[in-house]
Amino acid sequence: ARDFKSALEYSQEYDNLGNGMISRITDVPVAFLSGVIGFTLARKTKQDVMFDVGEHNRMKMQMWADHGSRWNAENKSLLLQAEKNYTTGNLDDAKACYEASIRSAKEHKFIHEEALAYELYGTFRVETGHLENGTELLRKAQSLYNEWGATKKASEVFHGR
Known about the structure:
This protein is an all-alpha fold and 161 residues long. It has eight helices and no strands. It has helices at 4-17, 27-45, 48-67, 70-88, 91-107, 111-127, 131-148, 151-156. Helix 3 (48-67) runs antiparallel to helix 4 (70-88) and helix 6 (111-127) packs antiparallel against helix 7 (131-148). The radius of gyration is 15 Å and the shape is globular. The mean pLDDT is 89.
């Protein structure tokens, strides 16, 4: 139920067990989700430390996209860049990065990450005053979550907004 602080604590505890780089298969989703959580909490709490968490993980994902596995990391890196741009008020750049992340996730057949990108893009649009477009994007996220089989997540897309 959107307990971002606990999720971040767990991911940081996990990260402390490793070497701080992406070296274990589970490091990728932990870094990705920690980045999303960091930027989300930075917007909600206005705490610089949360922005730093997002940025640290965005840089890890960017490095992985540039030097590791582009097909697997590109959409994640773009989504974290979109979240950073949103957090820093670069709204046009954020919009472009959300759209690029969606295209990349679709191209590489990551339906769950395409759904997340639509969800975060929809939230961005709603929160920046584009209610109709944002609602449409959230409906697309909901549809993709259902298609992926994540019916509980799909039912929660509009809750907590």
